[in-house]
Amino acid sequence: MWRPSRALTKCIFMAAPGPHVFLLVLKVGQRFSEEEKGAVEIIQNIFGEESVTYTMLLFTGGDLPKDTIFQYFGEAGSDIRNLIEQCGNRFHIFNNKQIRNRMQVAALLEKIDSMVAVNGGSCYTNEMFQQAEKEKQEREKEELRVRFEAEILNRRKEDEKRFAKREKLIFSQLERQRAEFEKQMKEHEELKHLQKELKIQIQEEVKTKEKLVEELERLRKSSEEKSKEKDLQMIKTTEEMEKVRKSAEEKSKENELQLMKTMEELERMRKSAEEKSKEKDLQLMKMMEELERMRKSAEEESKEKDLQLMKTMEELERVRKGAEEKSKEKDLQLMKTMEELYRVRKSTEEKSKEKDLQMMKTMKELERLRSAEEKSKENELQLMEKLKELERMRKSSEEKSKEKDLQMMKTMKELERLRSAEEKSKENELQLMEKLKELERMRKSSEEKSKEKDLQLMKMMEQQERMRKGAEEKSKENELQLMMKMNGGTGDSEEER
């Protein structure tokens, strides 16, 4: 925006008490430019709205034909007519070819005197000019304030969008982890179901062995009592026992095949669980790296904003009060948003604790199953002691039973290893919770640093406000001294006259 020079300001002061008229000179017949259309508005911007009452249009080119003059002025509503109406229909036309004709000058002076009389004999004073300057500065301040508030609002909106985007990303990652955890729990339930089926099969085999032992014991006693009298029956009984033994061996083989399939399925599920655990750890590391990168990016953006904020300090001091009020409202909204996030995080922690409790219950159930299996193993040892009396008849069955026991021991070790893997997974979750707490602490620290920066900014704004007021007071003192010097110079010139 164009500003009056110091020379123009000095001319206004030296023309004390002030000019009686502003002559706006235009040439008839020349194209009416955009600058000439806004001439009155320019005068108002420089000297204030009251300056229009002291403005008169002076047209040169009165020696042109009347048709040309009428064509230049145009009809009502034309640009030149509107300009004349803005000046209160005050205008005068000079004939350029009658330079020595003093009558047209006298006519112009008469019109000026008439305008002065209409204005009550007053002139455009220095106070009016100062008031116009003050109003113009206020308008500029208001425009600057509106523009700066719009810029702050846009930055706030951008920050809110960026924060919402990051919040959405974090929540999506948490939701994905929750789904993976539920999937692992489902697989754990399936594993538990397989363990129950395996336990039922083992119990059925134990019952079958007990029945076989009871039957063999009964047959042995019967054969001992009637061995002398019923040798033939003993042979038949032996053959029957051989059939029963073969049938038991076949069933044992079938059970072994089923057990091998179950063990292979358990091994496959274990490997799958280990791979998923590794994938989860990798995803967790990636997420932590992404969070660290986001934190560094946020710090860099904060530094850039601080630099931009330092550059705009001169503009901020004019609109500080309004901006502070809006900033407080935005800060309250931000605090509410952070409280909502903290509430959601706390709810997530409570849900995680509930899942941990369920895991503990599951582990206790597995421990109970393991103790039951140990009791079953003790029963099998007792059964082995009873079967020592029938060693010749059950050697092959005993060897197979030992192999099954070894497989059962391996299964128990595998279950114990899976339990330790689950404990490690729980430790990883605890580490994740600690890292989340660390991130929360870093966020609070960042907020405290931001508050400290805001306090420093407030102090700097107050210091600049004091400096600005001091500069304004000095400027007013200089203006008073200048006015006194100018008044003194005017008095000296009058005395010399």
TrEMBL record:
Positions of the UniProt region annotated as Disordered: 220-258, 463-497
SUPFAM superfamilies linked to this entry: P-loop containing nucleoside triphosphate hydrolases (SSF52540)
InterPro entries xref list: G_AIG1, GIMA/IAN/Toc, P-loop_NTPase
Keywords: GTP-binding, Nucleotide-binding
UniProt biased composition (Basic and acidic residues): 463-479
Residues of the AIG1-type G domain: 1-133
Pfam families on file: AIG1 (PF04548)
GO molecular function, one term: GTP binding
Membrane-crossing residue ranges in chain numbering: none
PANTHER family (UniProt xref): GTPASE IMAP FAMILY MEMBER 7 (PTHR10903:SF170), GTPASE, IMAP FAMILY MEMBER-RELATED (PTHR10903)
Record-stated family: Belongs to the TRAFAC class TrmE-Era-EngA-EngB-Septin-like GTPase superfamily. AIG1/Toc34/Toc159-like paraseptin GTPase family. IAN subfamily.
Name of this chain's protein: AIG1-type G domain-containing protein
Native source organism of the sequence: Astyanax mexicanus
